[in-house]
Amino acid sequence: MEDIDPTYIQPPEHRTDSNYIPNQPEEIRVIDLSRLNDPEDVQNVISEIGDACEKWGFFQVINHGVPCDTRHLVEKTARMFFNLPMEEKLKEKRDEVNQVGYHDGEHTINIKDWKEVFDINIKDPTVIHSSTDPEDEGLRLVYNKWPQYPSDFR
User: Fold this and answer.
1) pLDDT-above-90 percentage for the chain
2) H-type alpha helices, the chain
3) pLDDT of residue 10
4) CA atoms of 40 and 129, how far apart (whole Å)
5) Which of 112, 115, 57, 108 lies closest to 82, judged by CA?
6) How many CB atoms lie within 10 A of CB 98?
7) Which end of the chain is least crowded, N or C, by CB within 10 Å?
8) How many folded domains does the chain comprise?
9) Range of the domain at 97
């Protein structure tokens, strides 16, 4: 265990019982996005997404319309980026001013999560509020960060 960064280790009092077996195991939610084409079903899909986020924190989508070749290319390119040395990934690290780009510092119950992310906005640039203050009506532009490697990350 001495090779593991202690910021990843959950104190015993916060660990779940590894022998726990739920009485009625739930399956991860699968949400069919083609249902968004039915105006009468949109609110149901939104509710299912909200419920899945609250209970699981994630869900699987089907019928999203993204071609398999595109998805495979994105997965391959993302793997290439996340396999880069940390010094390369940190060149695109997000910050308080521009919250898109590389990030590896999320915490759950004060323990660092075992994940890395690269956030992007669909619209580039994106207009956001200047601050989290509800009284602040200022706006600013946020631009996506794009790593130099892999070159086809965009």
Assistant:
1) 46
2) 42-55, 68-82, 86-89
3) 75
4) 32
5) 115
6) 16
7) N
8) 1
9) 85-147
